[in-house]
Amino acid sequence: MNYPHPILAREGWSFIAISLVISAVLTAWVDWKWALPFYVISIFAIQFFRDPARPIPTHPDAVLSPADGRIVKIEKVRDPYADRDALMISVFMNVFNVHSNRVSVDGVVKRVQYFPGLFVNADLDKASSDNERNAVVIDAQINGQSHTVTLVQVAGLIARRILCYVQEGAVLKKGERYGFIRFGSRVDVYLPLSAKPCVAPGDKVSAISTVLATL
Question: What is the set of active-site residues?
Fold first, then answer.
């Protein structure tokens, strides 16, 4: 699950390598004009699979953003994965955002659940309940108190693969890399109702650099 952060995410190595090899072969043996579309694909793959290392805020009560993107929703809802009322903060990722998913809080994984589903636009509200998704329920210990935090990776219109590298019982640290979603999606964060949001709908956020809320 955890590995030293390269400049480019390992999930993209094969995509980048194949597109670069095809580009080089076409340039050398055919014509650079035929290779141009593959160079464009290579550039897109490199920017999509970039995986920058970032400093992690040290505030013990901070809930960090698990993904880059834009806040599309903050409201009180029912967390179906932990069976409780919760405050949900949703982060929408477009194809130009970093798609490496990071852990928002220190804690122990209590449950991991995968749900097959649709692939509607992840910017829509119904994506949280209808789309393919993977939920990780975490028991977070903050200031001596136990808090439940649920991170849900949601596939989108283009995203067709959710990758999650943690299992039940895993001990997680803030900022650790725990998953990846390919090509546009969202992450829903379910927090206790007592959590205080630090962001608003429309705000742009960065994985682990932005504090979503405090507990």
Answer: 185
